[in-house]
Structure prediction request, 301 residues.
Amino acid sequence: MILDRFTRISVVVACAAAVAVCSLPSAYPLTGTEKAWSMFESAAQGKSASQRAIGIRALGLLGDDAHARGLAERALNDPNPAVRAAAATALGQMHATESIPKLQKLLSDARIAVVMAAAHSLRDLKDTRSAYAVYYDVLTGERKGDGLIVQQMDTLHNPKELAKIGLEQGIGYVPFAGIGWDAWRYTHKKDPHPVRAVAAAFLAHDPDPATGRALVRTALNDKDWIVRAAAIEAIAQRGDPALGDKIVVSLFDANVRVRFTAAAAVIRLDVLGRKVSLKDPDKRTAQTKDAAHRDSPVPAR
Prediction:
């Protein structure tokens, strides 16, 4: 009887110890990719509509990633129109053809800016019939089928408002893909295409390794957040996994748009790196060793 009681007590103590150990913080820090996904998850569920919109918009850099697509599709039902528009834009940039039916439903949204964002993405996804129907509405000021509410009809007849919608929803800011920088410049009455940001964007596919290093320096040190974000996006588009670790520090940039652009870039480059490892382990090892010899400057604040 005493032995059984001792055994039961031992079991209880062991279980309690196991629970205590499981509740302790992990001894291993988050990787850059894990931190990046954590940022997106937090933004998607955050109370700030601005944070949700910025986070969801940056997902467009990830390509057709199932996790990113799921976050963006859920955001199509967000109560804030700016978040819905950001989600529609991101899905178009991802080339998420699976999301076409959901984007088509968004064409009935009460806010014309959301409708325009959905139409633009549908055009990118080759659903031109749906997109052209919306553009017809903009051209003529009337809708085929259901009518727009009076306020939205007024918007369609206001060139300034239409121009602003174009900037905000991704229609007017070529060559940038991830962040609505023109919208920010528009509201602050600054040059919508800073020369260095444009240069960074066009250098995305320059094969010279020196260009990659220059983009990293720009991403971490430039005083203009738009230029930093443009450089990070170019790094993501460049597709060199060895640069991924160099921009992890940008997850802590002072500017929220830069942080989320960096989060998308880190995830994208990590995925590419894993693919390289599967195809050619020796090449991935060489890239990692090469990256270890490069100095990473302190990020700009």
In short: The longest helix spans residues 256-279. The chain has a mean pLDDT of 75. The chain has two domains: 32-172, 196-292. The two ends are 68 Å apart (CA to CA).
